[in-house]
Amino acid sequence: MEAQDCNPLDCQIIRWLRDSGVTVTIVADFDQAIYGFRQGSPTDLRDIANGYDAQDRLPLTGNFRSSPSICGLRRRCAGAPSPIHHS
């Protein structure tokens, strides 16, 4: 499972780990959240991300999996800028 598809229980486990002093690295692309059928929602994960200091958050700046045409379609559908595509 990719982090953008975490459900509330998954997010609770992540919070518990962090609160217990465990270093947790999370990688997620909120535009790829597709697991609503298992209550996956990027909202809780955004809340967790906002709990990290700004210097500990790194934005996703490229797409290594999709073609430029797929990235462009996503941008047009979402009305948002498309990430940089890397071949």
Please characterize this protein's 3D structure.
- It is a single chain.
- With 87 residues, the chain is mainly α.
- The protein has helices at 8-19, 42-50, 68-78, and strands at 62-63, 84-85.
- It has a two-stranded parallel ribbon.
Distance between the termini: 24 Å
Number of helices: 3
Category from helices, strands and their pairing? mainly alpha
Helix and strand element order: HHEHE
- Identify low-pLDDT runs: none
* Shape type: globular
Average pLDDT score = 78
For the sheet with most strands, the description reads: 2 strands, parallel
Report helical residue fraction: 25-40%
Query: What is the topology, as strand order, of the major beta sheet?
Result: 1-2
Topology of this structure?
Layout: H1 8-19, H2 42-50, E1 62-63, H3 68-78, E2 84-85
Parallel strand pairs: 1-2
Features of the shown structure:
87 residues, mainly alpha, two-stranded parallel sheet, 2 strands, globular
Summarize the structure.
This protein is mainly alpha-helical and 87 residues long.
